[in-house]
């Protein structure tokens, strides 16, 4: 049904329609504007947060300031990189950093490792020949010394020169030759075997004293101290049995030589043989205490 409208009514109707159109459009535009504003603010917030955190999403960096996801500010980092631990953990890791050893320290570690094996191997052979329990007792101690040196080598990342546990197998030609000489002399008689044992312990003590003085690594020095004090006990035992069997006073083989090494913790005029023979190690003190209690 068509209705005739006056010009004024037509204008009024059209204005209402157009007004409603623009009103609705304005609301829509207003909503779109608000949405865009929110998006823009969000983008600004993200960018600001990234900058303040010192991070870059493309590099996978996180944290505050110059803290990076895998602690690598000077190289590419990735989002799947391992995260660093807490500050306390990082401090502990830093404190446990392994010192780099010099050539002399490494040489001593390698040599003493084989030196302890030489002692163990010689005692194995001599025990097999003479059956004296002193050799069997000290074999176990020398094995402990070998193990202590192996642990040091592993800790500092130094290759172990002992590639075979076979008796008489050595990397060092000097040690191999000395081993052969010691076995040959010790095979002559029980008395000679006891003299060989005492000589080995003198050799060990002098060498470990020197190695102790030529490192500032407390971890290494502590092991060396345990080793040379253990050798004090071994020398005392060999000398005691030798003098008991031979009825002859023991004369040091290496301690009395002109080039015998005097450790820094001793005065130069110290008679090192007397010092060692009169030194009571912790092991000796415990043994004496045990003997006193059993009486």
Describe this structure in words.
The protein is mostly helical. It has 2 domains: 10-95, no CATH class; 103-288, Ferritin. It has helices spanning 7-52, 87-95, 103-130, 133-155, 173-186, 190-213, 218-246, 272-277, 282-294. Helix 3 (103-130) runs antiparallel to helix 4 (133-155), helix 3 (103-130) runs antiparallel to helix 6 (190-213) and helix 4 packs antiparallel against helix 7. It is globular, with a radius of gyration of 41 Å. The model is unreliable at 1-5 and 10-95 (pLDDT under 50).
Task: Compose a concise summary of this entry.
By secondary structure, this protein is mostly helical. It is built from nine helices and no strands.
Spell the H/E element sequence.
HHHHHHHHH
**Overall 3D geometry?**
globular
Q: Look at the structure and give the mean pLDDT.
A: 75
Query: What is the fold-level CATH name, i.e. the topology of the largest domain?
Result: Ferritin
Extract low-pLDDT stretches: 1-5, 10-95
Biggest beta-sheet profile: none
**Strand proportion:** under 5%
Question: Which class best fits the helix and strand makeup?
Answer: mainly alpha
How many angstroms separate the termini? 134 Å
CATH H-level superfamily of the largest domain = Ferritin, core subunit, four-helix bundle
Say how many strands there are.
Answer: 0
**Cα radius of gyration in angstroms:** 41 Å
- Count of runs of 4 or more consecutive helical residues: 9
Instruction: Give the domain tally.
Output: 2
Assigned CATH class of the largest domain: Mainly Alpha
Please give the structural blueprint.
Elements: H1 7-52, H2 87-95, H3 103-130, H4 133-155, H5 173-186, H6 190-213, H7 218-246, H8 272-277, H9 282-294
């Amino acid at each position: 049904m068509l209705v005739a409208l006056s010009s004024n009514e037509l204008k009024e109707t059209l204005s209402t329609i157009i007004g409603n159109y623009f009103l609705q459009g304005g609301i829509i535009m207003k909503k779109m504007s608000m949405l865009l504003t929110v998006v823009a603010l969000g983008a600004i917030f993200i960018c600001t947060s990234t900058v303040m955190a010192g991070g870059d999403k493309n590099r996978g960096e996180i944290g505050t300031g110059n803290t990076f996801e895998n602690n690598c500010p000077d190289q590419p980092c990735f989002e799947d990189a391992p995260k660093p631990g807490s500050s306390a953990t990082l401090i502990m890791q830093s404190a446990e950093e392994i010192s780099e050893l010099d050539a002399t320290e490494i040489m001593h570690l390698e040599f003493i490792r084989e030196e302890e094996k030489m002692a163990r191997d010689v005692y194995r052979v001599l025990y097999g020949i003479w059956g004296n329990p002193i050799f069997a007792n000290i074999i176990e101690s020398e094995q402990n010394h070998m193990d202590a040196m192996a642990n040091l080598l592993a800790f500092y990342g130094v290759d172990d020169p002992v590639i075979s546990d076979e008796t008489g197998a050595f990397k060092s030609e000097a040690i191999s030759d000395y081993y052969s000489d010691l076995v040959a002399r010790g095979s002559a008689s029980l008395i000679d075997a006891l003299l060989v044992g005492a000589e080995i312990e003198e050799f060990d003590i002098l060498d470990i004293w020197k190695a102790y003085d030529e490192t500032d690594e407390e971890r290494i020095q502590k092991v060396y101290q345990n080793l040379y004090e253990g050798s004090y006990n071994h020398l005392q035992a060999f000398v005691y049995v030798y003098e008991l069997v031979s009825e002859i006073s023991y004369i040091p083989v290496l301690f009395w030589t002109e080039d015998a090494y005097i450790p820094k913790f001793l005065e130069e005029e110290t008679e090192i043989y007397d010092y060692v023979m009169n030194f009571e190690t912790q092991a000796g003190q415990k043994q004496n205490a045990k003997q006193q209690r059993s009486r």
